[in-house]
Task: structure prediction
Amino acid sequence: MRLKSTPFKACRRSSGFSLLEVMVALAIMGVAVVAVFQIFSITLRSTKKADDYTKALFYARSVLDQAYVLPDIETGSDTTDFRDGFEAKREISVKSSSEDDKSKLYEITVTVTWEPAGSLTIKGLRNVYEAES
Result:
């Protein structure tokens, strides 16, 4: 004689997920989501840092170019404030001069600083010839 299946046996054979399986799946998904958010945060910080360096290089190059076009260059230093908290300091010094002082080679150093603790320095040279009278 063959036994018919009862409703309880049918419930035991159902292919659903147990509570433990669901909890493990949620834990794995939670770890993955945290990892994605950390990568996103690192990417945002890197983008901000690259943007700051790009702005600093632009500002430094503009201050250096100003020293190249000055008609009468003088040794010393000066400071320029830019928007967004950037500050540029330009220092001009004589690197060498000819024996008759008609030709001088100036070294121009531009340092741009910004918060928090960012700094960029570029240097350039300018040769100036004294016009003969």
About this structure: The beta strands are 76-81, 87-97, 103-114, 118-129.
